[in-house]
Amino acid sequence: MPKTHDDGGTVGATETSFAILSHLREHSGATVTAIATALSLSKSTVYNHLRTLGRLGYVVKEDKTYHLGLQFLDLGNAARDRHDLYEVAKAEIDDLVSSIGEHGYVMVEEMGRGVYIYQSKTARGIQTDSHIGTTVDLHATAVGKAYLAYLPEDRRSQLLNELDLAPRTESTYTDRSRLEAELRAVRRQGVAFNNEERFVGLCAVGAPVLGPDDEVLAAISISGPTTRLTGDRYRSDIPEKVRETARIIGIRATYS
Fold this sequence. Notes:
DNA-binding transcription factor activity, Beta-Lactamase, two-stranded antiparallel ribbon, Arc Repressor Mutant, subunit A, transcription, Tscrpt_reg_IclR_N, Tscrpt_reg_IclR_C, alpha+beta
């Protein structure tokens, strides 16, 4: 539900448009009535926003149902293209995923949240809500913890001050001191582990992508079910591959 209702041209109108777009994304399309009911808006308000968005190409109508338009692909590609790392990392992550047989991700940080700019899937991988463009909590993911651990101390402290250490599962780090201890361990190991901290039954291994002077540019991860990521494979074999892939991406990003 938007924070404020449309009052004819204020920021509230923008919030309403984005609330409608978010609803369309989450429900793979919706009717005017369904949107109005879900967001506690009048049908006329919803219709006016959809008509404007449709004229701009951001919404399309099929029968009585509205869907996101392909115009968003142009915006999404432009946003991702700001990160040269995407083109550098894509092939390396694909190779890593092919060798391990689990899903792989590339994450950058924006406004205190992790954003997946690339995802490589396998046929047997576990389907979650993660996809390109998904924002994730830095404290509850392997990629997020890998990224935090290698930030300069002042920037890391700033982000930790801003983070809402909300629990995603019973295993999520919600205590600041425990999280900081975990980040120190990540720094020593060169990899981060996610032990069912975002989804029950799912774990992951992440590593930072470092640029010149060990500046952290991004982080990558491999994730899979706890039934397959176990023992030496989880604690030794996969971490070694993830670390090496992150190192190669960092080198290519620096010198390509």
